[in-house]
Design goal:
With 242 residues, the protein is of the alpha/beta class. The chain has ten helices and five strands. Its EC number is 4.2.1.1. It is an enzyme of class 4 (lyase).
């Protein structure tokens, strides 16, 4: 399917419909090991330029500015043999949080996305991020939590009510528990504050637990930014960088 720039620009609603039929790519924590180890078309973006591009895309998403996703067929061919994403996004698996739409309807090959419940930094995620920065040369890492996150809410229930979580869900929320325990405000804003803190915690863990990413940050080639997505307004708040 092909959409031309000068025909019918895509509004947010049409982008959502388009994503529903598989037109917008989501690169999850796995990656194709058959591709070349180093991308030949590394993005010519600095970390701050990549961040500005995400911010501008989010403005388009929020204001319903017409967005263009031109010639998907050609774009698919262009990126079929190599990829050079300009940003890595670690976010929640929540079905309402779709980075490719939230950041303005980006197309194939632009974002390297890792998702799990609660945007938790685990071995798989950290390896994915290292691959995205060192081998694909993505200059920006965004760790994005979101309003009313179910995984964070579950961890907060464990802390505040002693709730027991069955199966692997309990194990999944364990990395969030120290973040919830450290939050002193256990009132109405407990979950929301923990979501913010969890994004910061994830960004800090990437920096401290990955020598590869830490070196690239020190060299000024990569920036790590925690963020918060508001489900109600669609706005992404980029928090202070780590």
């Amino acid at each position: 399917m092909c959409f031309e720039c000068n025909s019918s620009p895509l509004s947010r609603r049409s982008l959502l419909k388009f994503a529903g039929i598989g037109g917008v790519a989501v690169m999850t924590a796995g990656f194709d090991m058959t591709m070349p180890a180093f991308a030949s078309n590394a993005p010519a973006l600095l970390p701050d330029e990549a961040l500005a591009k995400l911010q501008e895309g989010n403005k388009k998403f929020v204001t319903d500015t017409e967005a263009c996703a031109a010639n998907i067929s050609k774009r698919r061919q262009d990126v079929a043999k190599s990829q050079a994403p300009w940003a890595i996004v670690l976010t929640c698996s929540d079905s309402r949080v779709v980075p490719e739409l939230v950041f303005g309807g980006v197309t194939l090959g632009e974002l390297f996305v890792a998702r799990n419940a609660g945007n938790v930094v685990d071995t798989d995620v950290l390896g994915t991020i290292e691959y995205g920065t060192e081998h694909l040369h993505a200059p920006l890492i965004v760790v994005m939590g979101h309003k009313r996150c179910g995984a964070v809410s579950a961890a907060c229930e464990v802390v505040s009510k002693g709730t027991k979580l069955d199966g692997s869900i309990g194990k999944m929320t364990q990395p969030i528990l120290p973040v919830a325990l450290a939050e002193t405000d256990r009132g109405d804003n407990f979950v929301d504050k923990t979501v913010h803190a969890n994004a910061f915690n994830g960004a800090e863990r990437i920096l401290t637990e990955s020598a590869i990413v830490s070196r690239l940050v020190e060299e000024g080639k990569v920036k790590i930014v925690p963020a918060y997505y508001d489900l109600d307004t669609g706005v992404v708040d980029f928090l202070h960088k780590v």
